[in-house]
Design brief:
The chain is of the alpha+beta class. Helix content is 36%, strand content 18%. Among the domains are: 40 residues, no CATH class; 143 residues, Phosphatidylinositol 3-kinase Catalytic Subunit, Chain A, domain 1 (Ubiquitin-like (UB roll)). The radius of gyration is 23 Å and the shape is globular. GO terms for molecular function: zinc ion binding. It holds the Pfam family BCD1. Keywords: Isopeptide bond, Metal-binding, Phosphoprotein, Ribosome biogenesis, Ubl conjugation, Zinc, Zinc-finger.
């Protein structure tokens, strides 16, 4: 095994040809090398090495491209309207749920990456959600999160020591090793002065929709997962914020720089 160098290799990655002994080592090598694990069907093959199998692979690749193009032409979701009418409808649906949804101009990063939709048949939002874990300097993007899903269920694949992915669990071990009572979920309050940043504390036991009611959302919700036992200067609304020291000012700025940079970024 080229990852742990302890066990006999059982698998070979189709992408980078690395040998691995187990699923855990496969995931570790993908994370370390940013490897997708998918064979590169367009990789160069010299004429001397070109065989009937390569010809068959190319033929099947072209067939797959044709099927994908045909499916995209038929799929209405691919042609999802991004016109002002669609965005106005999305805002109105959110307003009926007591959510002030605000859309950024074309060119902003959050506008380009936002995949939030509203299913008229189910009368349900499917949100684009970003999870930020400041204590581990990690963030994850979730797509099509139903609005009736509780925050506890949303976080379970990341911080649950049993159900989380082994690689993610290792990266977020400071969270998985902490009791659930120490975990707080915060969301930044919008439209405040930069020197007066405040956060709303969300309830993990209720749905995403209920947590977003009465709040301003710019494009999509960004949730900060923090620990009570670790020092942080993300002041929650309603708390008595004492004067922070110079070092704590620096820490607070670094914790909020992730999303501030996204909002300022434009093409």
């Amino acid at each position: 095994c080229e990852t742990c160098s302890k066990e006999e290799a059982k698998y070979r990655c189709p992408r980078c040809m690395k040998y691995s002994c187990s699923l855990l080592c496969v995931k570790k090598h993908k994370l370390a090398l940013s490897c997708s694990g998918v064979r590169d069907k367009t990789a160069f093959v010299s004429v001397n090495e070109f065989t009937d199998l390569n010809l068959l692979s190319d033929y099947r690749f072209l067939e797959d491209v044709g099927r994908t193009a045909d499916a995209a032409a038929r799929d209405l979701a691919v042609h999802r309207p991004t016109t002002s009418r669609f965005l106005a409808s999305l805002r109105n649906k959110a307003l009926k749920c007591d959510i002030d949804l605000r859309i950024l101009p074309i060119g902003f990063t959050k506008r380009r990456e936002n995949s939030t939709t509203f299913n008229s048949t189910e009368k349900k939002f499917y949100w684009h959600v970003k999870l930020v874990f400041p204590h581990c300097h990690a963030e994850y993007t979730l797509k099509r999160v139903p609005d009736d899903k509780t925050l506890a269920d949303i976080l379970k694949p990341y911080i649950d020591p049993v159900e989380s992915d082994p690689v993610v669990c290792q990266r977020l071990k400071v969270y998985t090793a902490s009791p659930r009572s120490d975990i707080r979920i915060l969301m930044k309050m919008e439209n405040r002065q930069r020197n007066s940043v405040r956060y709303n504390e969300l309830d993990a036991s209720i749905s995403l929709l209920d947590n977003l009611k009465g709040k301003v959302i710019i494009e999509y919700p960004t949730l900060f997962v923090v620990l009570k036992t670790l020092k942080n200067d993300m002041v929650v609304l309603g708390q008595d914020a004492s004067e922070p020291s110079e070092s704590s000012d620096s820490e607070s700025s670094s914790l909020s720089s992730v999303e501030e940079g996204e909002i300022r970024d434009s093409s």
